Amino acid sequence: MSTHSLRDLRGNLGAVVRAVAATGEEAIVTDSGTEVAVIISLADYERLHEHADVVDALRLREQRANRYS
């Protein structure tokens, strides 16, 4: 995992994004020393959304089961 300030990213955002895409390793973005964002690969983003969809489906199933019990 790498960490980059907003100031640093102004000059080399492309290189950071390419590194994240190539390695799959996320990059933390800081603003005045405070962590404010994360750059992740598209594959990781898609995986997160797949997991979120599964969690949503399980919650819905649980809500329906509780309604009828």
TrEMBL record:
SUPFAM superfamilies the UniProt entry points to: YefM-like
Swiss-Prot/TrEMBL keywords: Plasmid
- Coiled coil stretches, renumbered: none
Segments spanning the bilayer are none
Question: In terms of domain of life, where is this protein from?
Answer: Bacteria
Q: Which family does it belong to?
A: Belongs to the phD/YefM antitoxin family.
UniProt function note: Antitoxin component of a type II toxin-antitoxin (TA) system.
NCBIfam families referenced in this protein's UniProt entry, alphabetically? phd_fam
Q: What is this protein called?
A: Antitoxin
- Organism, scientific name: Mycolicibacterium fluoranthenivorans
